[in-house]
């Protein structure tokens, strides 16, 4: 019998770590049951979303009232969004090095500088604090397949701390163009309400801003679009982990014939992923976002590579995906324009709006792009 020589450093680590693993196209982390994680001294779980790809995973961590996580360092990037609670984090360039401390609350977003010694503290004596993180641990463990290297390396990445004010919410705006402009910092104290910029080319009255946190190779952006509207579809490989900061609606995914071949059924293989505040999902192939509620829909997207640091892959961090994000597929980009979308998209959306108390504004809006009865 042939010997199976396949080995995944990440899969092996997950099996040995003993944490619960949740799977699916979309998950609502506030509802999940967790288990004590000895490594970090908190309750935790791992999320393996259907289209997570090979680069990033997700962790849910909950710090008990008045407690803290263990101080650890790690040779992988981690971006953290606070689902609930309040507290503080300290980071240093290892023992005896420069130390920074900052406070966070529900709705905060921050980056853990690569391989820094860091520790999280729950600032409440009554309520737990629940954190959702996206990390590139799968990539790093599968690349080096050596756990000692991941958790016991002393190298100091001096460039990851940035300017002194980056941990206090200060930052630098890099003006590029709509959809590409980005804010460089380490902490967004209130990501749920951070001011965004217009991005008309993606449709639906959308606003957007890119972010680079802790000088990470992982990229971040926040987008928001109006009630009763939906954005233009676009297609790329797996790996964009999308966290809902507000609103209610759904997203659809279907094969694009390149990064997701499917079974040849195209939109016949469409998957609908419902979401609400606190939900997380990962799209793949062509996908489209729909706001069916009465409030703006706002989401945070995190993936490996992006507009600052490109990576050579079919994932969201490729140069092709970055350049073609708001360019029609007919012109070599990855976006499906409103005039080219399947007519059933509008009909389905209007039905879902009726279910969720929203009022569709798309029929009138689409008249500028195509004939709509």
Report on the structure:
By secondary structure, this protein is mainly β. The chain folds into 2 domains: 10-150, Jelly Rolls (Sandwich), CATH 2.60.120; 166-368, Jelly Rolls (Sandwich), CATH 2.60.120.10. Helices cover 12% and strands 35% of the residues. The chain is built from 6 helices and 25 strands. Strands 2, 12, 13, 15, 16, 17, 19, 22 and 24 form a 9-stranded mixed beta sheet that branches. A hairpin with a 4-residue loop joins strand 3 and strand 4. The longest helix is centred in the last third of the chain and has 13 residues, at 344-356. The mean pLDDT is 91.
Q: pLDDT below 50 for ≥5 consecutive residues: which ranges?
A: none
Give the helix proportion (percent range). Answer: 10-25%
Task: Name the CATH homologous superfamily of the largest domain.
Answer: Jelly Rolls
Count the DSSP helices: 6
Average pLDDT score: 91
- In total, the number of strands is 25
CATH topology of the largest domain, by name, is Jelly Rolls
Q: What global shape is seen?
A: globular
The CATH architecture classification of the largest domain is: Sandwich
Structural class: mainly beta
Measure the end-to-end span: 64 Å
Radius of gyration: 21 Å
Number of domains: 2
Main sheet properties? 9 strands, mixed
Instruction: Determine and state the CATH class of the largest domain.
Output: Mainly Beta
């Amino acid at each position: 019998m042939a010997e199976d020589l396949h080995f995944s450093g990440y899969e092996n680590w997950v099996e040995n770590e003993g944490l619960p693993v949740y799977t699916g196209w979309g998950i609502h982390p506030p509802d999940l049951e967790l288990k004590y994680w000895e490594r970090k001294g908190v309750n935790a779980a791992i999320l393996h979303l259907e289209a997570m790809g090979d680069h990033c995973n997700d962790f849910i961590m909950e710090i008990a009232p008045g407690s803290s996580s263990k101080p650890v360092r790690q040779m992988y990037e981690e971006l953290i969004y606070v689902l609930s609670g309040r507290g503080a984090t300290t980071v240093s360039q290892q023992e005896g090095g420069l130390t920074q401390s900052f406070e966070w609350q529900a709705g905060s977003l921050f980056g853990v500088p690569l391989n820094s010694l860091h520790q999280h503290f729950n600032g409440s004596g009554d309520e737990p604090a629940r954190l959702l993180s996206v990390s590139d641990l799968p990539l790093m463990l599968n690349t080096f397949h050596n756990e000692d290297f991941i958790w016991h390396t002393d190298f100091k990445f001096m460039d990851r701390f940035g300017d002194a004010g980056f941990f206090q919410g200060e930052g630098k705006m890099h003006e590029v163009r709509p959809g590409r402009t980005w804010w460089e910092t380490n902490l967004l104290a209130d990501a749920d309400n951070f001011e965004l910029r217009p991005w008309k080319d993606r449709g639906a009255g959308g606003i957007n801003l890119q972010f680079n946190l802790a000088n990470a190779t992982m990229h971040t952006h926040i987008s928001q679009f109006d009630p009763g509207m939906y954005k233009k579809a676009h297609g790329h490989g797996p790996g964009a982990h999308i966290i809902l900061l507000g609103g209610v609606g759904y997203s659809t995914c279907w094969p694009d014939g390149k990064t997701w071949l499917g079974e040849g059924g195209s939109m016949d293989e469409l998957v609908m992923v419902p979401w609400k505040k606190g939900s997380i999902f990962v799209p793949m192939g062509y996908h489209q976002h729909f706001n069916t509620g009465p409030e703006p829909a706002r989401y945070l997207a995190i993936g490996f590579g992006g507009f600052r640091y490109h990576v050579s892959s079919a994932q969201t961090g490729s140069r092709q995906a970055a350049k073609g994000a708001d360019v029609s597929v007919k012109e070599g980009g990855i976006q499906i324009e409103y005039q080219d979308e399947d007519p059933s998209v509008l009909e389905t959306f209007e039905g879902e709006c009726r279910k969720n108390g929203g009022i569709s504004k798309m029929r009138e809006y689409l008249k500028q792009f195509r004939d709509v009865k």
